[in-house]
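Practice problem: predict the structure.
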Amino acid sequence: MGKNGNGKSRNWSSIDPVLLDPTGAMYEGITMPGFEGVPFRGSVPELKEDDPAHKQPVDGQKAHAEILELWKEADLNRYRNICQVVANGFGAISKEDMQYDTAKKSWRVFIRWLEFFTAMQKGGGHGRSR
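Answer:
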């Protein structure tokens, strides 16, 4: 726990929602083919080249961290799907550790990966412009 500017305690484990979802679109559905080759969250608006920066789509990434036990069919399928998302250019693996489980005679995987998307900015221009 720390103190904020007015002397009140603040919980360090909480993260401001705007830092987690700066575009305000993190949990909207994906529209394909998307925008400039990247899946678009929400419906793609009519865009003009001369629209101001705050009315242009921004890049976003959704972070995932998972532990998968590859002897389980659902986890193996999930792992394959993550690899396919990355192979299709819609994501990237930022860390992957594999550990062989001698009892199961199979692998356990920790995978941290990013899902790429574009979205319109909501509520004041947060996010990184293209």
